[in-house]
Amino acid sequence: MNISYNWLKDLIDLKGNAEEVARQLTRVGLAVEGIHPHGDDLVLDIDLTSNRPDCLSHLGIARELSVYTGSPVKVLTEDVPDVPMPAVLAGDIVRIDAPDICHRFTARIVRNVKIGPSPKWLVDRLEAIGERSINNVADITNYVMHELGQPMHSFDLDKLEGGRIVVRRAAAGETITTLDEVERNLDDSMLMICDAVKPAAIGGIMGGLNSSITDDTVNVLLEVAFFKRESIRSTSRKLNLTTEASYRFERGVDIDNLVRASDRAVRLICELAGGVADDLIDVYPSVHRAGRVVSNDISAAVKRLTGLTVSTDECDRILESLGITAETGEEGEKSYLSPTWRHDIAIEEDLVEEVARHTGYENIGVELPPAFGAGEYQHNEPREKRLRQTLVDQGFDEAISYSFIDTRFDGMFDAVPGLLIHGGGDRFVTLNDSVIEGAVRMRHSILPGLLDAVRLNLNFQRRDVRLFELGKAFAAVGDGEPPNEQELFALVVTGGEVHQDRAMTTRELDFYDAKGAVEAAMAAVGVTDLSFRAADVQHLRRGQAASIAVSGEIVGSLGRLSDNIAAGYKFKQPVYIAEINLQMVLGSAAKTPVYRPLPKFPGITRDVSFIAGRDAAYTSMRDAILSQGSDLIKAVDFVDVYEGKGLSEGERSITIRIEYRSDDRTLVDSEIDGLHLQVLSEIERKTRARPRF
Q1: Predicted model pTM
Q2: Which of 245, 97, 63 lies closest to 165 in space, CA to CA?
Q3: Do residue 54 and residue 190 come from a single domain?
Q4: How far is it, in rounded angstroms, from Cα 176 to Cα 184?
Q5: pLDDT at position 188, please?
Q6: Strand ordering across the sheet containing 633-642
Q7: Distance between CA 403 and CA 386 in Å, rounded?
């Protein structure tokens, strides 16, 4: 951003030369990267951050300097009405059909102008900051934009069909030839400034060639408007067209500055082009209200957050110089009104930052923060640390992937329980301005990132992969509500088991490797009552998928990646994945390990095979056994499954082992025969599986 030193002197009484001004601006966070001579002027090259659009003008820089100099900004002393001025027959000249993206539109007709070259002082001012001179009217609009920060556009009134302006969205298939003589195709998301028939300008970006000011122009319509930032940014990117105007509109302009900017430009047009101005037309569908930030003791807040000691009067003086005024309510509550040109003032911490900037960051001392809780683990961090270490000990690597994913993952993965709490509507959190090209969703699952990591490893000829990740997932809640955030845990295994110092794999990893890793991870966080049941999960292969439950409550899923998703990633080997709502798991206290002595008395084990249908599950048999509630039943374990000769099609044999033991005596077979028969009967009754003798 180029700022003319001589121009600044017209707006504020400066103390010191250009070098001193540069040092002061850099001190308050507006870094001056260089000072360049231009004729009898000096130009300051200022590096601005995107959150300070109010400084994209000489007026904005002058406001910052007013805190240091104590001098008022001269342009701010002009008498500009706070309420829009009504105009006779305004609706016949300007109509807004898209008030959701055009919040205010002002127009003024200047008649009998004479287009010609600009005076030398105006040309010099523009050339000093890198702008070329075009003609007196175009130069004035550029001059006022750089002076007050408000983009504007001038139309040849006689070239507008019907002599009127209609602010609307483009119709599908419409085109416009812009001032750079390029024909541009439009869509219905783009805001256009039109005449009664056709587009005359791309709102907030660039005017049209057919309505431009030429040497033959006699009557000028001056537009000064306020557009929604997101709309301008979207249109600029779609058209690959960036201008000085769009750069400012994308970051935010001052909606209350429109009348002042229009007055300034019209006065200059009448002075330099000899025109006569009509009344102001101001269409303002919904009046903007200033933001209010409550801070009953700003001095204490500055002390608490920065360590600086600044009196309340000095805090108020700094904020007042920046346009942030203090008010006291009827109940004694003190608040600060954020000016319409500051879009970054929303909370008390923002006020503290303004005070700290102008008091001097260099005055902030170095000291240790209060020790209350400093350096301590958060509530669940030790458990998460044990989980990580357990998986690393098993040969897993931890992955960290982006929280942003593509829309192609919408509906690809079933969400974990507890994440989607919004019943209906759009379940996904969509970004207005994506950080990564195409990644416009906040992830609702951390599996996409893990699978991308697997694909990357496979592409680099690493086929034996074990990865896990802990991270946040997000889901929409409702209009105006923050998204639901849940911390998830996921893992993926594929390839073979590799032993240390061995080049060959000993066997292929399978479902039970992933299951064992999940069990070890949950045991590390103190979860012992973990159970698995066959389930239908959208992103897992049917028959090789299970739900994961803790204390009977489902918290996630486990299984082999479905064939259609695997084909999309071009995986040529089985991939097993698990995903768990870790926040739900950690919501319950960890089970404290309890010492139990080794049993003094031997037990009796019985291996029993059952003939059951192909859909029978071991877990249902185990539950039937444990439902007996007998103190003598100490353990139930899975042994084997058999399918083939001796069994009919659709049947299989499942072998389980039951251990009976007493804590106070040695059992004999006769004591458990009755209980064992009762167990077999209960299994057959509940699962329709019959013993195989």
Answers
A1: 0.58
A2: 97
A3: no
A4: 5
A5: 92
A6: 633-642, 651-660, 604-613, 690-691
A7: 24
Domain that holds residue 641: 604-691
We report the CATH number of the domain holding residue 35 as: 3.30.56.10
Residue 83 lies in a domain: no
Q: Looking at residue 370, what is its pLDDT? A: 65
Distance, in Å, from the CA atom of 128 to the CA atom of 453, rounded to the nearest integer, reads 52
Together in a domain, 276 and 303: no
Question: Which residues contact residue 241 at a Cβ distance below 8 angstroms, ignoring those fewer than 6 apart?
Answer: 178, 184, 202, 205, 206
Say whether both 468 and 579 belong to one domain.
yes
Give the Å distances, CA to CA, from 84 to 81, 193, 254, 663.
7, 21, 14, 89
Which CATH number do you get for residue 435? 3.30.930.10
369 found inside a domain: no
- Where does a domain end: 31, 55, 77? 77
What is the domain count for the chain?
5
Please, what are the averages of pLDDT over each run of 10 residues along the chain (693 residues)?
A: 92 89 92 92 92 92 91 62 42 87 93 95 94 94 95 95 93 93 94 94 94 94 94 94 94 92 93 90 82 86 91 93 88 87 90 93 80 69 93 95 91 90 71 84 93 95 95 86 91 91 87 95 91 92 92 93 94 96 89 85 92 85 88 91 86 93 90 90 89 81
State whether 483 and 508 are in the same domain: yes
Shared domain for 278 and 350, answered yes or no, is: no
With vertex at residue 477, the alpha carbon angle to CA 474 and CA 478, rounded to the nearest 5 degrees, is 140
- Provide the strand spans (E) within 121-248: 153-156, 165-169, 175-177, 183-185, 191-194, 199-202, 206-207, 220-227
State the SS3 of 293-362: EECCCHHHHHHHHHCCCCCHHHHHHHHHHCCCEEEECCCCCEEEEECCCCCCCCCHHHHHHHHHHHHCHH
Contact 282, 299 (CB under 8 A): no
**Co-location of 343 and 392 in the same domain:** no
H-helix or E-strand spanning residue 442: strand 441-442
Backbone angles phi, psi at 619, to 5 degrees: -60, -35
User: What are phi and psi for residue 644, nearest 5 degrees?
Assistant: 145, -140
Give the whole-angstrom CA distance, residue 519 versus residue 529: 10
Last residue of some domain: 47, 77, 107?
Answer: 77
Alpha-carbon torsion (421, 427, 431, 437), positive or negative: positive
Q: In angstroms, rounded to a whole number, what is the distance separating the alpha carbons of residues 45 and 635?
A: 78
List the CATH number of the domain containing 648. Answer: 3.30.70.380
**CA pseudo-torsion sign 483, 488, 494, 500:** positive
Residue type for 400, please? I
Neighbours of 590 (CB within 10 A): 16
**Within-domain flag for 596:** no
Q: Does residue 524 sit in the same domain as residue 398? A: yes
DSSP states of 244-259:
HHHHHHHH---GGGHH
Classify 31 as helix, strand or coil: strand
Say yes or no: 106 and 181 in one domain. yes
Cα gap 220→275, rounded to integer Å:
9
CB 256 within 8 A of CB 288: yes
Does residue 400 belong to any structural domain of this protein? yes
pLDDT of residue 22: 92
- 65 neighbors 8 (Cβ within 8 angstroms): yes
